[in-house]
C-alpha cells in the first residue's frame, strides 16, 4: 500500500486520505482551471431540480443585464472561484445570488436593481421563450451594425437581414406594384413578400432572432402577433384582433423598433451622392412613413452614424424593459 510523507514527517495513507474538492487544472487563455470543477445549483423549495453552473452562463446573463462584457467576464470568474475555493459545490439559487451580489459590489457594479434585473433575465433565458426583435429603418440608420452589436450583448447570434433575402430572390421574382405606384406601395408589397419568407424562422423553429432591414412593414407583425408584441413604455399589447396561429407564437416576445436618422444624414450616404436628390427624397419619404408607427406604440430610436453606441444602449434598455414587463404579466 502506498504511503506518503506528511509535512511533519509522519506517514499517511494516500489511498484513505479524504480528498478535497477536485484539483483544478490549468488551461489556456480561453479558459480557467475552475472550469473543470462542477458546481450544482439546486432549484425549488424541495431541491427537486438542479443545473450545472458555468462562467459562460453567468457572464452571458450579466452582459444581457447591461454589465459591460469585460466586467461580466471578471465577475463570473470571481463567482466560480469563490464557490470552488470555499468548497461550495452544491448550493441553492439564493446562495449563488448572495455570492454574486458580493462580487458585483467588489467590482463596483452593485447598482440599484441590478440583482433583480439579473433574476429577471436569467428566468427569461431559462424559460427558453423566443425573443424576436424587429429592427426597421430607412437607409443610413445603421440597422446592420446596431443589430450585430445588440446581438452580441444579448447572445442572439441569429441576425436575419431582409435585404439579403430579397437579393437572393433576384429582381425577376420581386413583386411589381404597377405603373405609377408610390414608394410606400412598393415598400408594402416587398415587405409582405419578406414576411412570407420569414414564416419558418418566426413560427416553426421558435428561435430567438433579430430581424433587421429596410423592407419590414411592422404593421404586418403588429396585427399578426398582437398578444406577443411589447410596445412603447414596455407595455404588452392586448388590443390586437388576430390571435397567434400556433403554440410557438403564443410564447413569442416580439419587440418592434424603428431606427431613424436626421434628414441631413441622408445627404451623406454614398447611394444618395451617386444617384442625386431623388434618392434622398425617397429615403425621407419612407422614413416619414415608418415614423408614423409611433402612433401605434412602436418606439423610435435615433441612430447617429458617428456614435451607434447610443442607439445600441437605448435599444438594449428598451429590450430589457420589455422582458421585465413580460415577466410581470405572465
What does the model show?
The chain is 47% helix and 13% strand. By secondary structure, the protein is of the alpha/beta class. The strands form 3 sheets. It has a 5-stranded parallel sheet, with helices on both faces. A 3-stranded mixed sheet has the order 4-3-5. It has a two-stranded antiparallel ribbon with strand order 1-2. Helix 1 runs antiparallel to helix 2 (69-85), helix 4 (114-127) crosses helix 14 and helix 5 packs across helix 14 (308-329). The chain is elongated and about 75 Å long. Residues 1-27 are annotated as: Disordered. Residues 11-27 have a biased composition (Low complexity). InterPro entries: P-loop_NTPase.
How would you describe this structure in keywords?
3-stranded mixed β-sheet; 5-stranded parallel β-sheet; 330 residues; 14 helices; alpha/beta; P-loop_NTPase
Q: Looking at the structure, what is the overall shape?
A: elongated
Write the element-wise H/E pattern from the N-terminal end onward. Answer: EEEEHHEHHEHEHHHEHHEHHHEH
The amount of beta strand, in percent, is 5-15%
Mean pLDDT over all positions = 79
* Overall number of strands: 10
> Major beta sheet, specifics?
5 strands, parallel
Q: In which order are the strands of the major sheet placed?
A: 7-8-6-9-10
Low-confidence stretches: 1-29, 238-248
**What's the N-to-C terminus distance?**
62 Å
What does the radius of gyration come to?
25 Å
User: What is the overall number of helices?
Assistant: 14
What helical percentage do the residues reach? 40-55%
What structural category arises from helix and sheet content?
A: alpha/beta
Biased composition (Low complexity): 11-27
Region (Disordered): 1-27
Amino acid at each position: 500500500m502506498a504511503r506518503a510523507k506528511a509535512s511533519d514527517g509522519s506517514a499517511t495513507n494516500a489511498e484513505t486520505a479524504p480528498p478535497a474538492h477536485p484539483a483544478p487544472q490549468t488551461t489556456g487563455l480561453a479558459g480557467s482551471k475552475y472550469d473543470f470543477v462542477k458546481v450544482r445549483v439546486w432549484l425549488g423549495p424541495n431541491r427537486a431540480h438542479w443545473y450545472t453552473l458555468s462562467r459562460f452562463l453567468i457572464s452571458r446573463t450579466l452582459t444581457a443585464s447591461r454589465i459591460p462584457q469585460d466586467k461580466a467576464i471578471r465577475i463570473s470568474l470571481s463567482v466560480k472561484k469563490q464557490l470552488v475555493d470555499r468548497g461550495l459545490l452544491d448550493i441553492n439559487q439564493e446562495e449563488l445570488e448572495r455570492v454574486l451580489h458580493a462580487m458585483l459590489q467588489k467590482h463596483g457594479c452593485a447598482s440599484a436593481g441590478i440583482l433583480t434585473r439579473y433574476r429577471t433575465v436569467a428566468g427569461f433565458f431559462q424559460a427558453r421563450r423566443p425573443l424576436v426583435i424587429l429592427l426597421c429603418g430607412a437607409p443610413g440608420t445603421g440597422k446592420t451594425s446596431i443589430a450585430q452589436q445588440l446581438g452580441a450583448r444579448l447572445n442572439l447570434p441569429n441576425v436575419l437581414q431582409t435585404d439579403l433575402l430579397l437579393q437572393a430572390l433576384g429582381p425577376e421574382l420581386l413583386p411589381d406594384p404597377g405603373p405609377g405606384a408610390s414608394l410606400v406601395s412598393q415598400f408594402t408589397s416587398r415587405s409582405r413578400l419578406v414576411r412570407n419568407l420569414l414564416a419558418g424562422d418566426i413560427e416553426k423553429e421558435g428561435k430567438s432572432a433579430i430581424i433587421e432591414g429596410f423592407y419590414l412593414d411592422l404593421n404586418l407583425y403588429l396585427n399578426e402577433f398582437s398578444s406577443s408584441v411589447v410596445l412603447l413604455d414596455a407595455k404588452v399589447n392586448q388590443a390586437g384582433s388576430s390571435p397567434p396561429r400556433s403554440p410557438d407564437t403564443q410564447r413569442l416576445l416580439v419587440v418592434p423598433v424603428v431606427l431613424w436618422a436626421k434628414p441631413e444624414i441622408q445627404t451623406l450616404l454614398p447611394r444618395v451622392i451617386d444617384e442625386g436628390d431623388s434618392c434622398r427624397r425617397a429615403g425621407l419619404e419612407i422614413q416619414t412613413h415608418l415614423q408614423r408607427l409611433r402612433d401605434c406604440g412602436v418606439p423610435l430610436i435615433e441612430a447617429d452614424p458617428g456614435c451607434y453606441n447610443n442607439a445600441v444602449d437605448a435599444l438594449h434598455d428598451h429590450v430589457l424593459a420589455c422582458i421585465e414587463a413580460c415577466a410581470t404579466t405572465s
